[in-house]
Amino acid sequence: MRRLRSVKIVATLGPASDDYDTIRALHEAGADVFRLNMSHGTHDDIRARHAIIRQIEKDLDSPIGILADLQGPKLRVGTFENGHETLEEGAGFRMDLDPALGTKARVTLPHPEIFQALEPGAHLLVNDGKIRLRVKDCGADFADCEVVTGGVISNRKGVNVPDVVLPLRALSEKDRKDLEFAASLGVDWMALSFVQRPEDVEEARELCAGRAAILSKIEKPAAVKAFDSILAVSDGVMVARGDLGVELPVQNVPPIQKRLIRKCRAAAKPVIVATQMLESMIESPMPTRAEVSDVATAIYEGADAVMLSAESAAGQYPVEAVTTMNNVAIEVESDETFRVVIEASRQSKGETVADGVVAAAREIAEKTDIKAICCFTQSGTTAGLVARERPRVPIVAMTPLKGTARRLALVWGVQTVMTGELVRFKQAVVNAACAARTMGYAGDADQILVVAGVPFNIPGTTNILRVAPCDERLIWRTDPE
């Protein structure tokens, strides 16, 4: 399904979008990847949604990516005698391991790992940061705090610990079960929550065993500090601005978003910008101007994808939210300023032959009347490298592997076509020309660029660039003759 924009759209499925007609409408409106939130719904719910997506993929002959988002450890306070208490600014408040019901003076925090890591001066944030506590004294089973920002604290509210690296693995026991279930189901991307260090990603990769690509969610200050090493072992990144905005001053989030996007682009790894993008559309058929501007900013920065959460999962207007995001993307990318910003932020790479080949492809395409860059890719690496260049012309990725085609649904500007196994470069040229014509990117009198690696079917061998005609004598062929 040809899109009229390069940025991709990720839509979360949920109660508002769990039937065939709605999910198909979301895809036709612009959703390229569907997110299955493992925090909500049973395995049977997830299995049913996965089956519907694959049926739509078959019906429309359009590769669709599926992202399973693991919940991660959830840190919560216990319960209160009265169900809730009001904490006053300047008052003292204790958190401890005592399972007794909470009072105005204390509550249980059943996570000994937190107390192991705390130091005086560290902060504890409750209920998405609405309540802020500063640790004055702490031990192995308690933390005596001063209330910096007061408010109502109630049963099982979430706790964030922004100032320390917690001795917690990113994968809880629930996450391990969910990971195995989702990987066995056949999802394409596995999003990992609560990432603090590269070892968290490596653990998930070992458990996935190649069945899904690993996407690290950056939602903690520790992950921002260790971002370079986390990026090196990840296949992609999600900038989860909601949690970042809780654990960091909100004014820090925009520059962090911009910096992380640039680093992901330089590494040729897809990056999703997520959280509260069109949040008002949960209840309104129209977004706010500020939300539209927020989406546009992520597109101008060159993000591979923008994501809808509750807007498409639980909102009253899921299809309208996707349509709005699609329309914003088309409008932004047609703006002359978009190309100026994208090209000004491009970072040159010249370390490998593949880097040189894709940079040359983009240069030739921009200086001549090339209609498309067609690349053959086994693992998706070649297509990712071409996408890193953010060329002005369409990118057509051709692969014999359905899993690769689905993963590339997340990559900027890439339109994927399934092809057979190739053994000769002439086949690649013929197939590329036919694909460009069939998709409407080029006519018989036009030229395209073909990027491939020889020998074929070996990842990481991008070494050939050819200008090829699209004349009518070329026919679709996948046989070796």
CATH evolutionary superfamily of the largest domain: Phosphoenolpyruvate-binding domains
What is the averaged pLDDT score? 93
Give the helix/strand class: alpha/beta
Number of helices: 17
How far apart the termini lie comes to 30 Å
Radius of gyration: 24 Å
Number of domains: 3
- Contiguous runs where pLDDT drops below 50 for at least 5 residues: 475-481
Biggest sheet strand order reads 1-2-3-12-13-14-15-16
- Major β-sheet annotation: 8 strands, parallel, barrel
Task: Characterize the structure shown.
This protein has helices at 20-29, 43-60, 112-117, 173-185, 198-208, 221-225, 227-232, 241-247, 253-266, 289-300, 310-313, 318-333, 336-344, 353-367, 381-388, 402-407, 425-438; strands at 8-13, 33-37, 65-69, 84-87, 92-96, 106-108, 123-126, 131-139, 142-149, 151-154, 159-160, 189-192, 213-218, 236-240, 271-274, 305-308, 370-376, 395-399, 414-418, 447-453, 462-469. The two termini are 30 Å apart. The longest helix has 18 residues, at 43-60. Strand 17 (370-376), helix 15 (381-388) and strand 18 form a beta-alpha-beta unit. By secondary structure, the protein is of the alpha/beta class. The radius of gyration is 24 Å and the shape is elongated. 36% of the residues lie in helices and 23% in strands. The protein is built from 17 helices and 21 strands. The strands form four sheets. The chain has an eight-stranded parallel barrel with strand order 1-2-3-12-13-14-15-16, surrounded by eight helices. It folds into three domains: 8-72 and 170-333, Phosphoenolpyruvate-binding domains (TIM Barrel); 84-160, M1 Pyruvate Kinase, Domain 3 (Beta Barrel), CATH 2.40.33.10; 353-469, 3-Layer(aba) Sandwich (Pyruvate Kinase, Chain: A, domain 1).
